[in-house]
Design goal:
Number of strands: 23
Helix content: 25-40%
Oligomer: single chain
Radius of gyration: 23 Å
Number of helices: 17
Distance between the termini: 63 Å
Largest sheet: 7 strands, mixed
Strand content: 15-25%
Mean pLDDT: 96
Shape: globular
Length: about 500
């Protein structure tokens, strides 16, 4: 049953089909970032807790992996229905512990549900291939088989959607699954686990283990884990990739981003300003697909900057549960302090402060910050290069379209890039030349639907196979080639 967070609630582990107290001895308070009030706490796991979870998952794998694929997807169908039935109350839990607006939370959960829908098609997606007469009197067949127990380590910014990038595909392909959610907003993961339980998955197929960095390091190197999925900042993604791969695991690690939007002289500037504002400031900028840098052709720079600042200044800032709120708080006090340091750095490095979020009207309680827009930012400035993960947007002038594309490609990151234009030739050039894994044209946020993989390039991704779609199926399976010949008697 999904319901609001209870006063003093403790986020426990969900292991082997049961709720179990973590025994690591360490705990962390969970706050409502809109008010700063304590909601409850999270208990961290011990090595013994993790060993038990993985042992039970490995035990469940033996039967689950040989369960008929049509039977494996039946709990997924029920899970999808339960997510839809409880979408609003789950969104309220998410908003309360994370801070994003309710509309954003509802959209996030909908994106997660779409992945469950796609994974229900595993009977078709998991098929490999068959070639009769591959050689004289020989037929060959490729067969996909599950790996074993897999783990996903997921971040705070999308506590519902990102676990659902992995869970549905992992279990539909016959694996068992261990989730280590962010310690900042653990109750959303637990509510999802309660729906998993209600959907009727066999005990041990889906598990949730709470903890901090020590828990992550033990899980990603554990002998009982076959594959690791991770989403987080680039330094940690690289650590997870190198550590888990060094321990012999299959790894996909999504890192940080510094996405750019290019505004061409041929763009619909009002539309571009609206979409750029939404992309940069939705979820208080705490998105790996946010576009915190806008590269604007000089010919239209001044007009676009004015339109953008007007859009950003009009945003209502407050609790995500209140009607009319456009932007909620940052996830925590320390994170807000980090973003404020970047704002001060931008000022010190000489960027023009077109809109100062520190001076906007925000609620006194909680960890709010208004939208901040810097103009005429040097492409080498700190705020133009480093991931801030907050509501801070840098505007950069480009001499022409070629210069704009070049400025995008200077970034060490390659998660996403978007272009606003009415010129088809520019759109084609952008698609062919820009170095990013998710590319949008006249799309503020280049987020792929669940039946396509979620891209990532350069320092934004470590691995070979991404989340979602066919990539997820290939990541969670090994392909065996079966070669058969029947000589004549």
């Amino acid at each position: 049953m999904v319901d609001p967070i209870g006063d003093g609630e403790v986020a426990h582990n969900y292991v082997g089909g049961e709720w179990r107290e973590a025994t690591g001895g360490e705990s962390l308070n969970v706050e409502n970032p809109a008010t700063g009030d304590q909601l409850g706490s999270i208990a961290f796991s011990s090595a013994d807790d993790e060993d038990e979870a993985i042992a039970l998952a490995n035990g469940a794998f033996e039967e689950w992996s040989t369960t008929a694929v049509e039977e494996r997807i039946q709990p997924l169908f029920r899970f999808k229905q339960l997510l839809e039935e409880h979408q609003e109350s789950l969104a309220e839990v998410l908003v309360t512990e994370h801070g994003k607006t309710k509309a954003e939370a509802m959209g996030e959960i909908r994106r997660g549900i779409e992945n469950v829908e796609v994974a229900c098609g595993i009977p078709t997606m998991m098929q490999a291939g068959h070639l009769p007469h591959a050689a004289p009197n020989i037929d060959e067949t490729a067969v996909r088989q599950p790996l074993g127990t897999v783990v996903a380590v997921t971040p705070f910014n999308f506590p519902a959607m990102i676990p659902l990038w992995f869970l549905p595909y992992a279990v539909a392909t016959g694996n068992t699954f261990v989730l280590k959610p962010s310690e900042r907003d653990p109750f959303t993961a637990n509510r999802i686990a309660s729906l998993v339980d209600e959907a009727g998955f066999p005990d041990g197929v889906v598990n949730v283990v709470h903890g901090g960095p020590d828990t992550v390091n033990r899980l990603i190197t554990h002998d009982g884990i076959e594959a690791v999925s991770f989403v987080g900042s680039t330094p940690i993604a690289q650590h997870v990739y190198e550590t888990a791969a060094g321990a012999g695991k299959r790894v996909q690690a999504q890192g940080g981003a510094k996405n750019h939007v290019v505004v061409s002289a041929n763009a619909n500037l009002q539309f571009a300003a609206e979409q750029t504002c939404s992309s940069a400031f939705a979820n208080a900028g705490q998105r790996c697909l946010a576009n915190p840098v806008a590269v604007v052709e000089d010919e239209v720079y001044d007009e676009f900057a004015e339109l953008l600042v007007d859009e950003a200044r009009a945003m209502e800032i407050g609790s995500g549960l209140e009607e009319g709120t456009d932007m909620g708080p940052l996830v925590s006090g320390p994170h807000r302090d980090s973003v404020l340091e970047y704002v001060e750095t931008g000022v010190e490095e000489g960027a023009e402060l077109l809109l100062d979020g520190r001076e906007q009207e925000v609620p006194e309680a909680g960890y709010h910050l208004g939208a901040t827009v810097f103009g005429d930012v040097d492409p080498d400035a700190t705020i133009a290069r480093e991931e801030i993960f907050g509501p801070v947007l840098a505007l950069i002038r480009a001499e022409d379209f070629d210069d704009a594309v070049s400025l995008v490609n200077r970034s060490q990151f390659g998660n996403a890039a978007s272009l606003f234009t009415s010129d088809g030739g520019e759109a084609r050039q952008f698609r062919l030349e820009v170095d990013a894994g998710n590319v949008g044209v006249n799309v503020g946020t280049a987020a792929a639907m669940a039946f396509f993989h979620f891209g990532g390039d350069k320092d934004s991704f470590f691995g070979d196979l991404h989340a979602q779609g066919d990539d997820a199926v290939r990541f969670y399976t090994d392909e065996t080639v079966y070669i058969e010949r029947w000589p004549d008697n």
